[in-house]
Structures are given as structure tokens and as C-alpha cells.
Task: inverse folding
């Protein structure tokens, strides 16, 4: 119940900020359209379109969560909550739930645009693309929650995005196939969660929902739990 | 009856010893004022009592339990010095959220809003309120859930005299119902409104007395002068 109270509160805060909501929904639609026009709807768009759709929520929710949690730390509301009968798990689950809901809305709208208006094709089920997008959003939220502990200002929190998210994008296999990477780069790629998120999306697009796909999903879910555990460890009831 | 017992509490913040070895007590069912200049360690002591301060030594016992322990989280209300509420939510949304976290009845929200005289602003977003109004929202959040101990860090700063008088009346009304209050302030003219006083200076307890005792001990008419007399007696 308290988890739902936290989620409702986070969503009410977002609702008060319509500009951010428009950006969360609008930017991926515009970028997806840009990608299509740039490659004239050809094979590159068909190759990258679905993974992009599934990875947007990761970036968005990483940013939104890290800033929201940083504010919670800086304004003292987190300290207040820590004096109240609320477990860390309830707090984190509330955040995960709220941003999962936002991600579901975001991914659904971007899917309608991409599949309906932009003629993006995937061989596998579209609903799996949306579900993976939601999972990636929760992963982004969990990581954002964790890194917010290492930022003192919103400027720093924003800089974690290029520092932690862009390398994962470059190495996940979207830009260069992992087979043609230098060995040491592939090793790094192996250790990054977005690699598995991308692979799952690429397999959905190719309709190869095999054992490797299941393993990808398992790794993403494992990373969510790990990031949440790390995030919980940074939530201290007592601070210096 | 003792509500809070602080025993040889030692706190170091940012490499600086804020509380070297502080021992003091807060009596139950009374309004105790925690007075001292800014930087004297009032907020650090308060944070230790509500269990959010990392301490280097000593012990703090609150209502018979170690400070910050789980059973205390629904028995202690805390208002920090900075308004710790969500600026992008309305007054009512803020309080409704905290009430849900505390698991209290829905009518507690309306009562808390009335207690701090914010009925006319209940549906306004906190960010658009004045500083004093924001502080009152924060106070209202501490009043939710009918706590047995209320720990308030400078609750009346920046408020006009009428509101201050009303809030002190509220504090004494709560104490009459058996609630223990620890209220910090850096202005000595609030000291007279307290049942008893803890005077803090540079992390040390200068006095633990009622306002009348303090006057008698120092022979000063004004508590400000009494405070000065105590400092000079120490030196």
C-alpha cells in the first residue's frame, strides 16, 4: 500500500510538470521520425528502429529518476521519510512502479507512431518490444536511483547520463555488430546491461525468441535487482 | 518521566567535533526549549534524537527505545530546519502522502492543515507559498499521526507574532494532552514560552532549568542577559 502511495506521489509530481511529460513522450517520437527520414525508411531504419524504441525509456527514466531522487535527498524529504515507518524497499518499489507506468505509456505511444505511421516492421510480436521497453525503463530507473547518491547537484546528475549511458549505447551492438568489435571491446560490452537489452530487442525484431532471448531477459532482470540492491544500499537512515 | 535521555553523545560532522560529550534529558509531557546560538549543535542534537544523524559515540534513548529504531518511527514526529516537503505538490497532496506513509486516518490531514492555519492555501502548490507558509506545511507533516514526541527544529522562524503565539498555544495544547515537545530556537524571547530549557553553546550543555530558575540563578530579568551571565560564569 505504501508502495502505491509513493508511486502516486511521484506521478502527481510529474503531472505538475507538463513540459517534462511532453518531452518524455514527444522526443522519442521525433527522433524515431528523424531516423526514418534520415535513412528514407530503408534497411538501417528497419534495423535500428525497434531497438531505439526499446532503449529510449532506459535513457529517459535514468535521467528523470536520478534528478527526482537527488531532489529528494537535497530537500530533506528523504530524511523525513527515513524517520517514518516506510521501508527502503517500499520506497524503491514505489519509484520503480511509477516510472514503469510512465515507460509503458511512453513505449506504447512511440510504438503506435513507429509501427502505425512510420511503417517500422518487426518480425516478432510488437507487444514484446513494448514489454522490453518497460523493463529497460525500470533498469534505467534503478541505475538512476543508484547514481543519484554520487551527485551533489543536478548538473552532476545530468553528466552521469553521457558518462554511464552513452558508452553502453556505443558498445551494445547497435552501431557496430559485436562480432566485428576488437576483443577487449567485446569483453567490456559483455559486462554492460544494455548489451543484453539490445540483443533481446534485436531478437524480437528478427522473431528469434530462443533460449538466448530468454537469457538476455534474465540478465536484464538480474541487473534491475542488482541496481535496486545497490540503490537501497545508498539509502541510509543515518547520514553524516 | 523522561522522554529522551542523551548519554555522552559524541558527533563529528565534516571532521569537526560538533557535540564532544553531551548528556541531557527531556521530560515527558512538557514543552522543552532547545536554545542556543546558531552553530551550537542544536540541529545535530535533534537529528541524533530522531535517528538520522551518524554518531561517533554515546547513546540516545527515546521513549525507552534506542533513537531511530523501528518502533519509534510512528511515535516520533520530526520537523527539520529546512521545509522538507515536495515543492511541486499542493499542501493537501503533501500531507495526504505523508499520512499514507504513516498509516493515519484521512481526517488527520484536515486537522493538521487547521492546526497550522493553512486552510486558505490547502490546494496551492508549495513552491508558490512564502517561506513561513512552507515551514508550516513542514510542521503540519510532523503533526500527522499524533506522535508521542514532537521534535521541531526552529518551527517559528520567520513567522509573524500572531502566528507564533498561535503555534505556541498549539504546542502547549499538545503537551496538555501528554505529548512531549522539544522545540529549538535561536531567539531567546521564545525561551519564556517553554516549560523548561536546555541551553546549548559550542556543543556543551550550559544549563538545564526552567525560565524562572534561570532568572533566579543569574539574577537577570531578561533571559538574554541570563544566558550571557552563564557564558561569563563559564569563562
Result:
Amino acid at each position: 500500500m505504501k508502495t502505491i502511495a509513493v508511486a502516486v506521489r511521484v506521478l502527481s509530481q510529474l503531472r505538475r510538470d507538463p513540459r517534462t511529460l511532453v518531452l518524455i513522450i514527444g522526443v522519442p517520437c521525433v527522433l524515431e521520425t528523424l531516423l526514418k527520414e534520415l535513412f528514407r525508411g530503408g534497411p538501417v531504419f528497419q534495423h535500428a528502429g525497434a531497438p531505439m524504441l526499446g532503449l529510449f525509456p532506459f535513457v529517459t527514466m535514468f535521467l528523470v529518476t536520478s534528478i527526482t531522487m537527488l531532489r529528494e535527498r537535497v530537500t530533506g524529504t528523504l530524511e523525513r521519510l527515513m524517520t517514518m515507518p516506510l521501508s527502503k524497499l517500499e520506497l524503491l518499489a514505489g519509484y520503480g512502479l511509477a516510472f514503469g507506468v510512465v515507460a509503458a505509456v511512453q513505449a506504447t505511444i512511440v510504438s503506435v507512431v513507429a509501427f502505425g505511421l512510420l511503417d517500422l516492421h518487426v518480425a516478432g510480436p510488437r507487444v514484446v518490444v513494448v514489454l522490453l521497453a518497460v523493463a529497460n525503463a525500470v533498469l534505467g530507473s534503478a541505475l538512476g536511483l543508484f547514481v543519484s547518491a554520487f551527485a551533489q547537484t543536478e548538473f552532476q546528475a545530468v553528466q552521469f547520463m553521457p558518462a554511464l549511458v552513452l558508452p553502453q549505447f556505443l558498445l551494445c551492438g547497435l552501431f557496430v555488430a559485436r562480432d566485428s568489435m576488437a576483443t577487449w571491446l567485446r569483453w567490456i560490452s559483455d559486462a554492460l546491461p544494455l548489451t543484453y537489452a539490445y540483443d533481446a530487442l534485436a531478437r524480437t525484431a528478427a522473431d528469434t525468441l530462443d533460449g538466448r532471448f530468454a537469457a538476455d531477459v534474465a540478465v536484464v532482470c538480474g541487473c534491475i535487482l542488482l541496481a535496486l540492491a545497490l540503490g537501497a544500499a545508498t539509502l541510509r537512515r543515518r547520514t553524516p | 518521566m523522561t522522554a529522551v535521555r542523551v548519554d555522552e553523545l559524541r558527533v563529528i560532522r565534516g571532521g569537526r567535533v560538533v557535540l564532544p560529550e553531551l548528556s541531557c534529558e527531556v521530560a515527558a509531557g512538557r514543552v522543552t526549549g532547545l536554545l542556543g546560538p546558531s552553530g551550537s549543535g542544536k540541529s545535530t542534537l535533534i537529528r541524533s534524537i530522531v535517528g538520522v544523524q551518524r554518531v561517533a559515540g554515546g547513546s540516545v534513548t527515546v521513549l525507552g527505545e534506542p533513537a531511530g529504531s523501528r518502533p519509534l518511527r510512528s511515535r516520533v514526529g520530526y520537523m527539520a530546519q529546512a521545509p522538507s516537503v515536495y515543492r511541486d505538490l499542493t499542501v493537501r497532496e503533501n500531507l495526504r502522502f505523508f499520512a499514507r506513509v504513516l498509516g493515519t486516518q484521512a481526517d488527520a490531514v484536515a486537522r493538521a492543515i487547521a492546526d497550522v492555519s493553512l486552510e486558505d492555501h490547502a490546494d496551492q502548490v508549495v513552491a508558490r507559498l512564502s517561506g513561513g507558509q512552507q515551514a508550516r506545511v513542514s510542521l503540519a507533516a510532523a503533526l500527522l499521526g499524533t506522535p508521542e514526541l514532537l521534535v521541531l527544529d526552529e518551527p517559528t522562524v520567520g513567522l509573524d507574532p500572531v502566528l507564533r503565539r498561535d503555534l505556541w498555544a498549539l504546542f502547549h495544547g499538545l503537551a496538555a494532552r501528554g505529548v512531549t515537545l522539544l522545540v529549538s530556537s535561536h531567539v531567546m524571547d521564545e525561551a519564556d514560552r517553554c516549560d523548561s530549557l536546555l541551553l546549548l553553546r559550542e556543543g556543551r550543555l550550559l544549563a538545564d532549568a526552567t525560565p524562572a530558575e534561570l532568572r533566579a540563578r543569574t539574577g537577570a530579568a531578561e533571559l538574554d542577559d541570563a544566558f550571557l551571565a552563564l557564558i561569563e560564569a563559564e569563562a
Notes: The CA atoms of residues 132 and 158 of chain B lie 6 Å apart. Chain B has two domains: 2-75+148-234, 82-146.
